[in-house]
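U., I forgot to send this yesterday:
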Amino acid sequence: MITPRMDSVSLIQSKIAQEIGPQRYKVWFKNATQFTMADGHLKISTPNAFICGWIERHFADTITEAARQATGQDLQLSFVVDPRLLHALRKRQLNSQADFIAKNPNRVAREHRHEDRVSYPSSRLRGRFDDLVVGPSNELALSVVRRIADRDPAAYSPVFVHGGCGVGKTHLMQALANHLAEHHPDCRWLCVTGDEFTNGFIHALQTKRIEAFRQRYRHVDVLIIDDVHFLANKKATQEEFLHTFNAIDGQRKHVVLASDSHPKLIGQFSEQLVNRFVAGMVVRIDVPDYRMRCEILNHRARLATSQPVPQEVISYIAEHLQANVRELEGALLKLIMFSRVAHQPITLSLARHALADHLARTQRGLGLDDIDQIVATYFGLTPADLHTSRKTRTLALARNIAMYLARKHTRMSFPEIGRFMGDKNHSTVILANRKIERLLAADEIVARQTPAGIKEEPLREIVSRIEEQISRQRTTQSPPSSSDPVAQDAAVERQPRLAIG
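Result:
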C-alpha cells in the first residue's frame, strides 16, 4: 500500500515541476513543502501561512491537474501549515521567494494567456457561497458582497473586506466571481490578486500593450482584487490602480477588495487610495467563534468523509484551534487520514492521539504567523521579505519589530523565533529585542521609506498600531471548559443561531 502511494506523490511533484518550471518549483516546493495522499485526498503541508496562501492561490489548479494526470482521479486538496517544516527552509530559498515576488513578472505571459478576456473561466475559482458557513464573524461581509452578487442597484462600492489569514476572504471573493458568472452572464467581471494586477501592469509596460491592459481593467462592471495590500511599496502600480479605480467608480460600477489589514494599517499605500477605500464600505471578517468553528468542522466533515465524526471530536478540535478556518480543516483532514490508515473509527481517544503533536506545534506557530503578516503588511512588505538576509533601513526596522512582538506575544524562545524568521541566530533576536526596548524607553523617532519619501514617526506609535491589529487578529471567544459540560451547554445556548449559506 505504501509504495504505490509514495510513487504517486513523487509523480505528482514531478509533473508540477514540469508544468511550472524548475526555478519556480525550487523556490516554492523544494525542501519545505510536503505532499501526503490518502483515499482521495491530497494534503499539501507548508512551513508558514504566507507560503501556504501563496501556493494555494497560485498553484492549486496546477496541483489538481498534476494529481489527475498522475493518479487518474480528482483528488480533494487541503493546504495546511506545519511549523515542523520550518527547519527545512534555506536562507537562499527565502531570499529567492522574496526576489521572485518582487522582480519576476515573466510568469505573467503564462498566467495571463487569456489576457484579452474580460473574465476568467469560473472553473478556475473554487469558492462558492453554498460552501460558506455563516456566523457573527462574517455575516456582515457576506451580506455586503451578496448585494453586489445579486446586482442590487443600491449595493455599496467600493467594498473593502479585511481580516487575518485563513478566515475566508479569498473564498468570499471567489464566491462573488462564480455567482456573477453563473447567474449574471452579461455582467463583465474580473477577479485577480494584487500581485497578478502588478505583474500584468509590468508585463503591459514591457510589451508596450498598456492600452490593452487598461481596456481590460477599466471597462468592467465588477472588479475583484484579492490581497490588494500587495500593491504597497509599488508607486507606479498604485498610480495605475488609482486611475483604474477612478474610471470604474466614475461609471458607477463596483470594486471589491480584500486584504489582511484595514486600509489605514497598510504601510506605503498612497493617501489617495486609502481615502477612496475608507470612503466606501470597510468590513472586517473576524476569527470564527467556538460555535461557528463547530459548524465549520461539521460541514467539512460531511464533505470529506462518509464516516460519522462524533460531536465530542468536533468540540475537541474547535476548542484547541481558534485561529482560522484553514487550521481547522487541516486538523480534521489529518484525523480522517489517520483513521483510514489505522483502520480505526474516529473517536475522541483517536483524535487526541492523532492530533497531539499537530495541535501543540500549530498553537505555538500561529501567533508568529499572525505577527509576521501584520508587521509585513504595515510596512508594505511581504513575510518573505522579513525572512531574507537583506538589511535595508525599512526592512531591518520591520524585522526587529516583528522579533520584538513575537517574543512579547508568544511563548516561543529566542532560538525558535530566529528559526521562524529565516533561520536567524538566537543572538540576532536578542539584540533586536534589546534595541526595540531601548528605543521605546527613549521614545525615539524612527525613519522608514515610503512611496512619498522618508517618513519619520515615533516608534511607540508604530508598535501601538501594530499591537492593536494583533489584538484584533487574535480576538476570539474563549471556548468553555470541556470538563464542565453544563457550562459548555449554557455557552452554546447563548450563541446566536447560524446558517450554512
